[in-house]
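hi! just following up on the protien thing from before. the input was this:
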Amino acid sequence: MPKMYFAEFTNTETGETFQKFGHTRFNDAMKRLNYITEEYPKFNARVLAAVYHHDITYCQGVEETFKTLYPKNFWLEEKISGITECVKLDYETRKDLINKIMQLNKKTNEGLKFNESRP
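and the predicted 3d structure came back as:
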């Protein structure tokens, strides 16, 4: 099922982290992120939160909204795929954003279940 994901990358050489918004058609967003970590093995990646929806355009819209609210705010030498979707967030902002994404996913899933149960 398509999803919008919020992931975190860690530079294994320096310990520095940054976050990335994205969307994918893969059931497992890590499949998408693995393309990046295979090309740039000094980065580890993990998904922090995701919003699932059957419509990929919904996921793209969620991603665009978060990119607008949290625009790219640093420079990265490596030109990873989706570099314009990357940000550096402080711990509290990161934590709040994870909670917002989880709440949105819950509301989205409840809405989908409601619509599926209607004749």
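The chain has three helices and four strands.
Residues 114-119 have pLDDT under 50 and may be disordered.
cheers
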